[in-house]
Amino acid sequence: MTINFCIVNLFCVGLLITFGATDNVTSTLKKRDTILIGNLIFSSYGFLNDACKFAEQAVLDVNNAANLFPLFRLELDQCLPNDSVVGVNTKLWDYIYRGHDTPFILIPWIDEDTTIPVCAVWGCIVNSIGMQSDFDAKTYKYYTKAVAENSDVSLVFDAIIQHFKWEKMGIITANNDIMPNAASVFREKLAERNIESYADVLFASESHDVPDVIWEPLKGLRIFVSFALLEVDFAKVLCKLHELGLYGRHHVLLAFYYPFATLDLIDKANHGCNSSQALEVLEGAIVCSQFVSTTLGIFTGHRHFSTNKTYDDLAHILKPTTPSTARHYQALLYDNMWAIALAINTTIQKYGIDEVKNYKHNSDKNKTLLESLYKNLLEEDFDGVSGL
Question: Which residues, if any, are the signal sequence (predicted)?
C-alpha cells in the first residue's frame, strides 16, 4: 500500500501538545460520534488472540488521530472467547437481526461458512484475515480479505494450465482439513472446461508411511499439481516424484508452497530422499503460496503513515510464544482497521456522519451507503506497518 508519509499532520499534533492544547484535543475526542465495528474473531488460538490485540491497538491509534478523523471514533467489539459455531452465529444474529447494527464485521481465517453468505444478503462488509471454507472460492458481495486464500492459489494454477493449454495432468493432495478444499476448487475450474485429471493421488497428511501403490497412476504423466502445505507432506511429494523419476526438463510441477519450509532438513530416513534430491525436483518448478504476499510484510522496518510506528514498535503486544512466521496476520489486521477508518472518512464526505453511524441492516435505502463504504474501502491506499 502506498501513500506518502504525512509529516505535516504529525508535526501539527506535536505542536498542539507542546503548546498546551491537549485539552482541545481531548475535547475533540469526547465530542466525536462512535461507529461500531463488528467482531467475530475468536481469541482461543494464540495467533488469533494476537491479531485481536493488534486490531484493538489500531482502534486506539485511529481514535487518537483526531486530526485525521475529527468527526468519529471507532468502537471494536471484543473478540469471542472461543471458536464455538453457536457463539459466532449468535453474535452474527445480534448484528443482523437484533439491532446491534454495524456495516463492518471482522471474521477469522477459518470456518466462517455462515457470515459471508448472510452478509451478502443482508448487507454488511465482511473483513477476513483469510479464510479456508466452502465459500472461499465464490464471489460474494461486500467481502474483503487481508490475506490470500488457498483457493487463490488454485485459481493461479488454473490460469497457468489455461495459458499453456495443458489437459493431461495428475493432482497430488495431502488429506487434511485444508488442502482437499483447495484441490476441489482447482478441479471445479478444470471441469468448467471439461477437463479431468488423469490421476488423482490423495495421501494421508503428516504420514511417513504412504503406500507406494497410490502413486502408480502418476507414471507416464508430465504435468503435476501438488496441494501439500505442511512441510512433511511437501517433502513426501518431492521425494516420491524423485523416486519415480518424474522430474527434470520434460516434467512440470505446480506446487502449493509454504515459504517458511526448511527444505534443507529433508532426509532419507524421514522423508524418502535427501534435501539435494528434493531440490532437484523443485528445479524449474512453479510454486505458489497464499503466504507470499504476507511474507513481504514480515520485514519490520515499515513505518505507518500516521503513527510513524513500525511492526517492531507494536511487537510488545504479542505473547512470547507467538511464532515469528505467524506475524503477518497481526500487521495486516492492524492496517485493515486503518483502511476501514479511512474508508469511513471518505464516505462521510458525501453521506454525512449520521448516515454511517445509524446504518441499519434491514433498511434497503442504506445499501447505496454500503456500496460507497465498500468501494472506498477497496480503493484505500496508504503506507502501513505491514509494508503492503
Answer: 1-22
CA distances from 229 to 205, 232, 267, 291, 373 (A): 10, 9, 18, 11, 35
Q: Are 224 and 253 in contact, with CB atoms under 8 Å apart? A: yes
Sheet with strand 252-256: strands edge to edge: 199-204, 170-175, 223-227, 252-256, 286-288
On whether the CB atoms of residues 326 and 123 are closer than 8 A, the answer is no
pLDDT at 356: 93
- CATH class of the region 153-289: alpha beta
CA distances from 242 to 5, 53, 275, 293 (A): 50, 45, 11, 29
Single pTM value for the model: 0.78
Query: How far does the chain reach from its first CA to its final CA, in angstroms?
Result: 5
C-alpha torsion 157→158→162→168, nearest 10: 80
C-alpha span between 53 and 175 (Å, rounded): 33
Q: What is the pLDDT of residue 6?
A: 26
CA-to-CA distance for 226 and 233, rounded, in angstroms?
A: 10
Question: Is the pLDDT confidence value at 55 over 60?
Answer: yes
Task: Single out the residue of 258, 219, 228, 136 nearest to residue 185, CA to CA.
Answer: 136
* Domain chopping of the chain, boundaries: 7-149+297-379, 153-289
The three three-digit cell numbers of residue 69, written as one number: 478523523
3-state SS of 343-354 is HHHHHHHHHCHH
Residue 136: burial class (beta carbons within 10 Å; 0-12, 13-18, 19+):
buried
Tell me which of 3.40.50.2300, 3.30.70.260, 3.40.80.10, 3.40.50.720 is the CATH number of domain 7-149+297-379: 3.40.50.2300
Whether residue 103 is predicted with pLDDT greater than 90 in this model: the reply is: yes
Closest by CA to 1, choosing from 240, 350, 226, 332, is: 332
Q: Quickly count: other Cβ atoms within 10 Å of residue 251's Cβ.
A: 16
Query: pLDDT-based confidence at 23, cuts 50/70/90?
Result: very low
Output the CA angle 37-108-302, nearest 5 degrees: 80
Among 123, 104, 120, 127, CA closest to 38: 104
